[in-house]
Design goal:
This protein is mainly α. The chain has a single domain (about 10-440), classed as Hydantoin permease (Orthogonal Bundle). It is built from 18 helices and two strands. A hairpin with a 2-residue loop joins strand 1 and strand 2. The longest helix has about 35 residues, at about 295-330. Bound molecules: tryptophan. Tryptophan binds near residues 26, 220, 221 and 314.
């Protein structure tokens, strides 16, 4: 047996898990969904979901992973042999493919925007430019491929060398740049409308469906509900405090999402861009702002480089879930497994890209293939996965095991234990069910 690769220390695991959590979900997906679902009220529901559902589930996932010391599928096999709980892991693998199919497309867009910034070709009608680009034939596919190739290289380098090092240096830089952008955005003339939109809840805009979207976003943004944090949990050293790690990860994740909102909505208001502009919101709004800044193209290049890297640290976590399954369970060599997984993602991802323009007929259930993959992952697979993880930790897994993990073998005090159990046994599963059913109907 080889010793499992593990993150090298406290900062390492937080940076890596935060690297997985922080990505396009915060900076691209959160603002555009927020814009489409009425702003402030949506943000509030999202925050509640993160605190009351997201955090307990993340903790549960970390606990399962560290206790079993293995990937999501094997973890359930070890902790509950001969019971079908491993299906959570199987579902996670499915979720990983559906998420990566559209995630890699958007990751490709960030590369295109890096190049546009460097070649100084961001000007004119940003909405038109964006739509022309994503509905084109080969260019988006080429960049999607490039994005996947980069992810492939990092996954091949292994956990501590590739994933950890990249996250440690670049995540703090992203935070810094985002703060600069926020300052620029709120000082634009007419910005206050946008800020009001983001911060002032208008509850008349909330529907069952928008609550489901907010919950789905909380899951998506925290990388929970599909075993990703189980796999990462298995890399956490035994003496680390899981609660404070989960708190830091969720806290920084929310912080980045809110900052992204503050960078985008005031600017959108200043430039008369509809907040409900859809998946292009970030790519339409921010270029307008960069154009008006001194040295804007440098900021723009920096921003899209950091966004691309944030997307990469998330995408490798998604790929790693499947690769660790293939290499540890199916005994396929890691290199071959990575090639196969990334290849399949590219095939599925091609359909996502093409459905945005070239092949408009790629539609099902009233959605194009891109939106469909997004909907299936965040609003179906992740909440269902999260539901079963809470049931598992709340009702099936022996309490002794959970307590042992949460207190790091009894060396730490975990004061919130009863509250944690109360949430995980009753509140979270019931809430997921209610939101899920009212959102689907
Ligand atoms: N959380 C990432 C983001 O916000 C995406 C992501 C990475 C993810 N790993 C995941 C989402 C696992 C769900 C499950 O961009």
């Amino acid at each position: 047996m080889t010793i499992r690769d593990s993150f090298s220390g406290r900062f390492g695991i937080i940076a890596a898990a935060a690297g997985s959590a922080i990505g396009l979900g915060n900076i691209w997906r959160f603002p555009y969904l927020c814009g489409q679902n009425g702003g402030g009220a949506y943000v509030l529901v999202y925050l509640i979901c993160v605190a009351l559902m997201g955090l307990p589930i993340m903790l549960a996932e970390f606990g399962i992973g560290r206790s079993a010391q293995s990937n999501a599928y094997r973890a359930f096999r070890i902790l509950s042999p001969r019971r079908p709980w491993y299906l959570i892991g199987v579902m996670g693998i499915l979720a990983s493919f559906t998420i990566m199919s559209f995630y890699s497309a958007v990751g490709g867009w960030t590369i295109e925007y890096i190049i546009r910034s460097i070649t100084n070709s961001i000007s004119g009608d940003h909405a038109m430019q964006f739509n022309d680009f994503i509905s084109g034939s080969y260019t988006p596919l080429f960049y999607q491929f490039l994005f996947l190739a980069l992810s492939f290289c990092i996954v091949m380098m292994g956990v501590s060398k590739g994933i950890e090092k990249t996250s440690k240096i670049l995540m703090p830089l992203l935070l810094l740049l985002l703060i600069v952008l926020c300052i620029r955005s709120v000082t634009l003339p007419g910005a206050s409308e946008g800020l009001k939109f983001l911060l002032k809840p208008d509850f008349s805009k909330l529907t069952g469906n928008s609550i489901l979207l907010a919950m789905g976003q909380a899951f998506f943004s925290l990388s929970i509900g599909m075993g990703c944090m189980i796999t990462y949990g298995s890399y956490i050293k035994r003496n680390e405090d899981l609660m404070s790690s989960a708190g830091m990860v969720a806290g920084s994740d929310v912080l980045i999402a809110i900052l992204a909102g503050i960078a985008i909505f005031p600017a959108a208001a200043a430039f008369n861009i509809e907040p409900g502009a859809g998946p292009g919101l970030v790519f339409i709004t921010l270029p307008g702002m960069f154009e008006q800044m001194a040295g804007g193209m440098i900021f723009s290049a920096f921003f899209f480089i950091l966004l691309c890297i944030a997307a990469l640290t998330s995408s490798i976590s998604l790929i790693e879930v499947v690769v660790s399954f293939c290499s540890e369970e199916m005994r396929i060599k890691r290199g071959l497994a990575t090639v196969l997984v990334v290849g399949c993602i590219f095939l599925l991802g091609t359909l996502c890209s093409l459905s945005l323009g070239l092949v408009p007929g790629l539609r099902m259930f009233g959605m194009n293939f891109f939106d469909l993959m997004d909907f299936i992952s965040s609003n179906l697979l992740l909440p269902i996965g999260g539901f079963f993880i809470t049931i598992y930790v709340g009702w099936v897994l022996r309490k002794r095991i959970t307590v042992k993990e949460l207190t790091s073998d009894g060396s730490l005090k975990f004061t919130g234990m009863r509250f944690f159990y109360f949430l995980i046994k009753y509140i979270v599963p019931v809430a997921i069910l209610i939101v899920f059913i009212s959102g689907i109907l």
